[in-house]
Amino acid sequence: MSRPLTLIHGWGMSPAVWTSLRAGFAATHEVFTPALPGHDAHCDRAIDEGDWVAKLVDALPDQSAVIGWSLGGQLAMRIAIDHPHKVSRLVLVGTTPCFVQQPGWTHALDADTVTGFRNEFANDPSQTLKRFVALQAMGEADRKGLSRELGKALIPVDSDNAGTLARGLDLLSTIDLRSELSRIGCPVRIFHGSKDALMPEGAAHWLADHIESAQLTCFDDAGHAPFLSRPEEFRRLVRRFLDG
Questions:
Q1: pLDDT at 45
Q2: With bands split at pLDDT 50, 70 and 90, how would you rate the model's confidence at 42?
Q3: 196 flagged as catalytic
Q4: What is the mean pLDDT of the segment spanning 207-229?
């Protein structure tokens, strides 16, 4: 069996979002799908932000191939930077080094939009999560179908995990890896939807330009979750990368 494969999901979703991808690699890889804090049945009551990475590091086998999606991709980059023995190959899907616009950084959402989303979550978390699913499906020919598929992996929010989920939004708002990407030493493959409404395509091109030897594939007419909307092509390209 090939090297272990770890799949790190995005904010607001559960590891169930990987069900079909995991099945596609189960015959050739030992597949791990750790949950982000607050995203499973275990109650992580608003743990410190640094503990998000520590929890994932504990769940990763050494020399794992890692696929990180959205916030999961940002955390996977942080692990590859600070714990290089954990990541042998890195696949980034629909992610960015910096989620919020900064001076000189336009490949992101503006700060007011992100602040508004965080306020909406604080006031009505369940409805905000449903809106988040709709945003992820934007740009897809079958928006309703993809929304239904994403909805199956949407986590229920309650008083036990709402605080930790809010910390996840804090991470999205504050992570900025742009100055540290040169420290990623493993092979990197980047996938992005050309119509991603959450992570602009320009961020993916920027990543490809600033991570040594990284390769980028953009899926035309795809949104934030191309591994679900383009499953066969995505699996084929990832397998080629992992076997290379």
A1: 66
A2: confident
A3: yes
A4: 96
Annotated active-site residue 70? The verdict is yes
Please tell me the distance from the alpha carbon of residue 23 to that of residue 67, in angstroms, as a whole number.
Answer: 14
Vertex 51 angle, CA 48 and 52, to 5°: 105
For residues 221 and 139, give the distance between their C-alpha atoms in angstroms, rounded to a whole number.
6
The domain total for the chain is 1
Nearest to 229 by CA among 115, 140, 162, 168: 140
Amino acid at 184: I
Q: In sequence order, what are the beta bridge partners of 32?
A: 6
224 is catalytic: yes
Mean pLDDT, the chain, whole residue set: 94
Using the Cα atoms of residue 60, residue 63, residue 67 and residue 69 in order, give the sign of their dihedral. Answer: positive
Domain of 72: which CATH number? 3.40.50.1820
Spot the catalytic one: 29, 39, 196, 229. 196
SS3 state of residue 31: strand
- Number of helical (H) and strand (E) elements in the chain, helices listed first: 10, 6
By residue range, what is the domain housing residue 126?
A: 5-243
Two structure tokens written together for 221: 């007419």
* Residues 7 and 32: beta-carbon distance below 8 Å: yes
Closest CA relative to residue 91, chosen from 142, 150, 200, 18 = 18
Q: Which member of 70, 88, 147, 229 is catalytic?
A: 70
Catalytic residue selected from 9, 39, 192, 224:
224
Beta strand segments in 21-157, E = 31-32, 64-69, 87-93
